[in-house]
Amino acid sequence: MLSRRHIRLKVMQSLYSYFSAKEDNMPVAERAMLKHINEVVELNLVIIALLVEIVKHADSFYEEGKKKHLPTDADLNPNRRFVDNELIALIREDKSLMDRVSRVSGIWLKNDHDVVRKLFAELHKSEQYTKYISSEEKGIDVDQRFVVNALNDIILNNELVHHILEERSIYWTDDLPFVATIVMGQIKSQKIINPTSVFKDESDEKFALKLFRNTINNNKEYEDIIVKFSNNWELERIAVMDQLFLKMAFAEILSMEDLPVKVSMNEYIEISKYYGAAKSKLFVNGLLDNVVKTYTREGKIKKIGRGLV
């Protein structure tokens, strides 16, 4: 489910928590990290739950319209195209998926924000919605395209949605873009996956655990490298996040023999661009480049396989 880039980000978040709390119980910390990473599965289900609840609200909205004292023709014969959307019908027909979705739907229903009604009201008045329900184009392709656009432009772009997600987990607003991409990719392929694990296979879980352990176990050594290659700056002068990017990169480059050096370097340079300060990318890039060149020359980087150094 998650790419290696996203696994690195989740490990980074767990390492930040670990070092901030000054934990010293590795088994407990590892279990907490895996639980934290697997919360991405819950976020996937939470997004699907929101879509389902909006459709259920739309159904109730149209049924209530028929009960007005003086209903119009539109009230008595509402355009139910959104409610009958074929893609959403496929989701609701998957009993196993809906059982899991129902367990997380409370995040949208059990709060004081009335978010489902507000989202449907915003969607209902949009030009996008009007064009969709009045279009003569039919079929599941049209239905899935509308759902993707509605999620992208209105539903998941809503500040109240972000607020509710952040109340559940401080990391979910960071996770939302790539989890939303996964959900929308599934919708485009018309295959709503019922995920049970964030890891595609056992090797990805081993990668996460090894990266987490190596960064912690070699923390002092990696701090010494940072000080040495930053012209003996004191660690206090270097941003905590920059230190973390570098330590994780060192864990891969120096301790994980099956990973190409260039891939590890590029990953953390790219991550520092989005999760560091304005000059983090330049600092991380320069220091990593210097360390790799020096350690390669000294024979300190050991890799298994051709072309990994």
Task: Describe this entry's structure for a reader.
The chain is built from 16 helices and no strands. α1 (4-21) crosses α2 and α14 packs antiparallel against α15. The longest helix has 40 residues, at 26-65. It has 2 domains: 4-188, no CATH class; 218-297, Orthogonal Bundle (N-utilizing Substance Protein B Homolog, Chain A). The model has no long low-confidence stretch (mean pLDDT 92). With 309 residues, the protein is mainly alpha-helical. The two termini are 28 Å apart.
Strand content: under 5%
Unreliable spans are: none
Mean pLDDT: 92
* Number of separate domains: 2
Helicity level: over 70%
First-last Cα distance = 28 Å
Could you describe the largest sheet, including whether it forms a barrel? none
* Derived structural class: mainly alpha
> What gyration radius follows from the Cα positions, in whole Å?
24 Å
Inertia-based shape: elongated
Q: What is the N-to-C succession of helices and strands? A: HHHHHHHHHHHHHHHH
How are the elements arranged and paired?
Layout: H1 4-21, H2 26-65, H3 73-76, H4 86-93, H5 95-104, H6 106-109, H7 115-124, H8 127-134, H9 140-155, H10 159-168, H11 172-188, H12 202-217, H13 219-229, H14 240-255, H15 261-275, H16 280-297
Produce a short descriptive summary.
The protein is mostly helical.
Key phrases:
N-utilizing Substance Protein B Homolog, Chain A; 0% strand; 309 residues; mainly alpha
